[in-house]
Amino acid sequence: MTELILPAVISCIVAFVVVFAMTPPLIKFLEKRNMAVKDMNKKENVMVVRPGGISIIVGIVMSELVLYAFLQLNEILAMLITTTAAFVIGYIDDRKVMGGWFKPVALALAAIPIIALGAYDTDLAFPLFGTVQIPVLYLALIIFMIPITGNTINSIDVLNVVASGFMVIASFSLSICLFIMQNYEIAIVSLPLGFVSLAFYKYHKIPSRIFPGDSGALTLGAMYGSIAIIGGVEIIAAIALLPAVINSFLFLSSVKKIVEHRQIKGKPVEHTNDFRLKATTDKSAPITLVRLILAGGPLSEKQVGFAIFKLTIFSGILAIITAFLMDVIL
Amino acid sequence: MKSSLYGFLFAMWILILLGGGIMVTLLGPFSIQQFGDFNWILASGIKVLIALVLVTIWILILLKLKNWMFKKEIKF
Of A18, A26, A289, A298, which sits most exposed with the smallest number of CB within 10 A? Predict the structure, then answer.
């Protein structure tokens, strides 16, 4: 355990410093190239650059390579390849409008390195009841897990600050769970995700100077999903991610098909005169987490963000309780 | 609104714990002996089928729960 402290500290510093230092020049570079979109939740005509996924992936790759130099784990390589592939998929979607099925199918293919490098265990562990061995079913789970976590994070990236803040809470909760379960190596592998998100949060907080874009959101989601698989904490990871899962569940159960947000005609949220967010009564609009939060009345973008963070802290606590319950068998 | 969202989160957590229990109880001891080399393929296929049924039931319960918990809010 003590021999892991040095690689853990170095990789966390690299993850944080790389993203923190690289994002401002990236913002300037993207501004020069006019790669900006309108911030729809601002009264003034504010343009925000994207994709911030570029600094996120550089931070992840550098910090995980540091860890690989120390630990030489196949799991790190598998996670890195899958995460990088997710970044490329997201970057393609940032530059070119792709169909609704592009991301799920491409992300499913991105999960293949985890299988090819054998960085998984076919036992699925549940709290209180023990484990179940499902060799074939587990392969399907890997293929589905990466598209689900990637798109789940992408679908919650609707307001300033939310995606990065959400990932800070969810990923640190997952790291704590891995430490509780004494899976120290993968816990350390998971730490850079939280530090990369924390560094990006600085520039993504309200008012955002940069958006992560699909490349950033898919990178964060795919890395989270990969850690869940290589760490054997799939159920705990799903619990820590519940607010985003609820968002996807509400969206899919109201739209009843896999579509891109831009293909939806009805608006779930509109603005009041003082530019606070307000739920619409449009029956054709999808039900989302933000729309449900706003059902009680209009709120500012910041208030909605903090409501989502409180829900994420709650699900993080449930994930930590679940980690303790893993050792308890009824 | 917010309390019903926390309630829904908590209900999902309980459903995950219960669903896991059912999955371990049903799939854990499941095995097939009489088909030689095909035992594991058949057993895996049946496990996949049972898991899919369980997940479908889980989603249906969640849909009912969502409609019941958010019936006041979802007037859209």
Answer: A298
